[in-house]
Amino acid sequence: MAAAKPVTKLYGWAISPFVSRALLCLEEAGVDYDHVTMSRSAGDHRRPDHLARNPFGQVPVLEDGDLTLFVSRAIARHVFRKHKPELLGSGDLERAAMVDVWTEVEAHQFQPAAGAIVVECVFAPLLGRARDQRRVDENVGKLRAVLEVFEARLAGKHRYLAGGDDVSLADLSHFRFDQTFHDNKNCRLFKLPQEASSSSSRARLRRNFLAAAAEHKSSGAEDLLALITTSTGANKDMAKGEDTATVPKVYGVAASPFVATVLVCLEEAGAAYELVPLDMAAREQRAPHHLARNPLGKIPAFEDGDLTLFESRAIARHVLRKHRPDLLGGGDPARSATLDAWTEAEAHQFHPPASHILRQCVILPMIGGGRDQRVVDENVSRLRAVLDVYDARLAKHRYLAGGEEASLADLAHVGVMLMLMGTEFGRVVEERGNVKAWWDRIAARPAVRKVAALVDAEVAVLSTQSSG
């Protein structure tokens, strides 16, 4: 009798770094799966059957029984949560937090720069387009800065990014970019340690990549603008009666969407905390004492006892994992996986266009700059497309991860949404009934209302300073 075919399927073309990441994780986990190859040039990702799997029309997509997931990092988390939880730091709160931090650094610091270089140096020639050397040079500079942070992290003290002697998702998430860099002169910038994935897994995936490269073309990588706020204001919120030496500290300013999202999660968790303001106008975030907390020189940073974290989404996961695991899906693997997919959608679909709009319409005018209407119009169009997907999703579910209860997938939007709704482009939300009803539910939550008041107070101070 013939053996039953595996129920797990991965859709996409192996030349994509995002598909290769998912394939590597399946291999590392020893999962029996089918790789369903697709053709980008034939537009397979835009066909109705694929849009039913991934409404954003991208790859990869994973089908695991009745569960359908998109976004490579969400797929990776699901695969490891189910088959190799040790690669997520499962069972160790601090280890899991550090895996999250460095996975977020890969997603929002390493990948945008590396991805832009790969697009220009590898895929542009495949598409018959000349390399944009200005873009290459700009992103090589960014990548050097990120890799200097990696170098310091890995200098003797740690063999792997999340610390210790064991590889994790934080390391494996870089896969595919290392092989791509070996094929062009920028390979001197980066070389992933061979131990970071099994040789058999890497060899198999390299064969898949080379085979796919003969017939498929990829247009590149997800992009992300890091929105940096400037403030000299200060807000502090601390639970009464707590020992100040043990109260977790958030370093930053509430007017930053990234800080605001962390504060919302702390408020949702009912956790005591202190908001420690930084003088952003004086670039205190680049001062040595803050670089010791966050080597990237950004906000927020978070101290919880002896544990120091950065990257807002990693901090949010830690806070909720410790205090409100139900907001991460609790013990339900399918809900956790769906939550991860829509949290990644916030990071890589919603956040980039929304943050570009805020930079042009809020941040630049506040510091005396002018709006570039072309950039605004382009990103409003992108944001409308994302919110159309949200509207269809929310026509069936009250919240993005499904069901009747909010989760991190919803709360991750709060920082940007609070600022966006204060601009004329809040109308892109108002125009979509399901999205508007969803946001109204989120905005009415006591935790969100409390943080919104902090944000409003800081923005008012900033507006007064910029006009004075």
UniProtKB/TrEMBL annotation:
Stretches assigned to the GST C-terminal domain: 92-231, 332-459
Protein's name according to its UniProt entry: glutathione transferase
Catalysed reactions, as listed in the record: RX + glutathione = an S-substituted glutathione + a halide anion + H(+)
Enzyme Commission number(s) of this protein: 2.5.1.18
Encoding gene per record: ga11263
GO terms under cellular component: cytoplasm
SUPFAM superfamilies: GST C-terminal domain-like (SSF47616), Thioredoxin-like (SSF52833)
Family: Belongs to the GST superfamily. Phi family.
GO molecular function: glutathione binding; glutathione transferase activity
Signal sequence, renumbered to the chain: none
Domain GST N-terminal: 6-87, 246-327
Gene source species: Eleusine coracana subsp. coracana
BP terms from Gene Ontology: glutathione metabolic process; response to herbicide
Keyword Transferase: yes
Leading EC class: transferase
Top-level taxon: Eukaryota
UniProtKB keywords: Transferase
